[in-house]
Amino acid sequence: MATRIQQACFKRGLIVELGGRNASMIRFLLPLIINAEQVDAVASRVEEAIKTAKSTKENAYA
Q: Core-most of 6, 7, 8, 37, by most CB within 10 Å?
């Protein structure tokens, strides 16, 4: 699932790293200086990516 989220994030202009056991965790590499609007924009894109990855997974099992 994390790999699908990573790919969906990349398509939305975000670069995230995978970590943890079996690359099952998403790591955000944020700049040292970031404002609330930028955080909200990233969160929105990640939310869209998660929804896309989830629907992709569900369609794979259908």
A: 8
For the stretch 20-33, pLDDT in tens is 999 999 999 888 99
Asked whether 57 and 1 are in contact (CB, 8 A), the reply is: yes
Asked if 14 contacts 46 with a C-beta cutoff of 8 angstroms, the reply is yes
Q: Which long-range contacts (CB under 8 A, 24 or more apart) does 10-16 make?
A: 11/49, 12/45, 12/48, 12/49, 13/45, 14/42, 14/45, 14/46, 14/49, 16/46
The residue ranges of every structural domain in the chain are 2-60
Q: How far is CA 12 from CA 6, 21, 25, 61, in A?
A: 10, 25, 19, 25
